């Protein structure tokens, strides 16, 4: 995937993760993109480690599921580190 695909994946995965998690978050769209990109990397790493499935094509459902799952994990960790409820 190219950098534009990573940005699109990060933006959408981060936004979906923010919608899934209850409560208010205090960061904007740039932080959402970063959260989504880091979440996609975390999700791809965990998917490869646990299920032998990594991030694939931008149109693949597994890529989106792993990115959103990783973004939710990153959002929970962010809430734990900052002491805020996510």
Fold and architecture overview:
With 86 residues, this protein is an all-alpha fold. It has one domain (3-82). It has helices at 3-20, 29-51, 61-82. Helix 1 (3-20) packs across helix 2 and helix 2 (29-51) crosses helix 3. The radius of gyration is 12 Å and the shape is globular. The chain starts with a helix and ends with a helix. The model has no long low-confidence stretch (mean pLDDT 80).
Q: What is the fold's blueprint, element by element?
A:
Layout: H1 3-20, H2 29-51, H3 61-82
Helix pairs in contact: 1-2, 1-3, 2-3
**Gyration radius over CA:** 12 Å
Low-confidence stretches: none
Average per-residue pLDDT, rounded, comes to 80
> Order of SSEs, N→C?
HHH
Helical percentage: over 70%
Number of strands: 0
Oligomer: single chain
The fraction of residues assigned to DSSP E strands is under 5%
Major sheet characteristics: none
Helix-strand category? mainly alpha
The structural domain count equals: 1
């Amino acid at each position: 995937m190219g950098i534009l695909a990573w940005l699109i994946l990060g933006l959408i995965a981060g936004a979906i993760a923010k919608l899934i998690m209850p409560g208010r978050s205090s960061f904007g769209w740039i932080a959402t993109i970063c959260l989504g990109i880091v979440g996609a990397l975390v999700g791809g790493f965990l998917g490869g480690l646990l299920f032998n499935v990594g991030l694939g094509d931008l149109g693949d459902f597994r890529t989106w599921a792993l990115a959103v799952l990783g973004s939710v994990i990153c959002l929970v960790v962010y809430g734990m580190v900052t002491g805020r409820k996510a």
